[in-house]
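Lab notebook: predicted structure, single chain.

Context: the supervisor wants predicted structures on file for every construct in the current expression panel, including those that have not yet been purified. This is the next one on the list. No modifications to the sequence; it matches the entry in the shared construct table.
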Amino acid sequence: MYGLSRGTQATLSVAQPLVAALLADPSPPPGRLALATVGGLAGFLAVFATNDLMDAGVDKRRFGARLRADTGPDVDSAGARHPLAQGLLTRRFALGWIGGLSVLALVIGALLDPVCVLLFLLAALLQVLYCRLATVTPYKFLVSGVMVAVGACAGWFAFSTTVDPLPLALFVLWMFAWEIGGRNIPNDLADVTEDVRLGVRTVPVVYGSRVAVRVAVAFLLVAFAASGALAAVAWPVFGAVGLVGTVVVGALTLLRPALLLVRDPGAALRAFNLATFHPVGVLAALVAGLLLR
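Prediction complete. Output recorded below exactly as produced.
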């Protein structure tokens, strides 16, 4: 079950809407914050499990053809990797697991704000679309970026009914760019050999590793700039400690992965693992800024 929902990745992902929540309300009611955290975790567990369910056929071919090589530690591999494809879980169980988590996320979202329900449903639909485009187009990475940004925005609307255009726009840009440059394309670079044999169309498969690295680095730089600009624009929330912390975290989890990719595209999985922790680091910097302001 943990592997089906990519439990580590899903848990780390909760940091994304929590940053938005604290931007919208720097002093949130503890009970509401706890409820939003549970709802966010349920939503991410459901969405990641949906990805595994949708890709079960392709993943089964990976294992059947022994295409899945051991490329080193992978945040996504905590727990059983692709348990459906390996026959460790049944499709019926997976559907029940996803359904239960989705109901929990939807109920909590409705209690917080109906907009959260709409954003969750939209993110889930985008996840399904992303999986459907696996063998169709390499530009599906744009869908992935939008999906992550949409889901993360639920944190904002769980605590505010008003929109502050500039910080929210910077937040969306940050999430969009981080997902593409930090997770999506580096993950595709790590899987390029097997994707070629399976007919999965990704940027490195269609355009080559060199182009993929350039695209990933460009988005990583955009994410770094957007996160820094967000901390500066939301100065009353981040404060000096939060701003400096955000820049330091960005250097370690965005700029360093970019350098790793430029030096060696084969280090894509290391870059992916580092970038995965970026929103958690920004959340920590934000909380530190709030506590010390």
